[in-house]
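stuck on this chain:
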Amino acid sequence: MEQAKPTILEPVMSVEITVPDEFAGSIMGDLNSRRGRIQGMDNKGGNTVVKAEVPMAEMLTYGVDLTSMTQGRGSFNMEMHHYDAVPAALQEKIVEKAKAARGEVKEEEE
């Protein structure tokens, strides 16, 4: 199986976030820290609507975080968009964690 070079896939969500204009910068920075890819921004009556694609694993606590970042004035919705490969560094962590859970020891390199 290892010769086939398997990869781990994760669901990527299409996210639309509506926040007052004054919070747009902090929202953009937060999305980047969550491995999000900004797809576009629109202004609607004093609000900024940010469209992005973000891995679902990074969005699990987003509702609480958005509320604290925007003083309760931001909202978002998300839906499944596609599956994408997990970055190599995270794949290694996931595999090591799974091996540890099964009681396997890390192989020593010779």
In short: The longest helix spans residues 88-101. Helices lie at 24-33, 56-59, 62-69, 88-101.
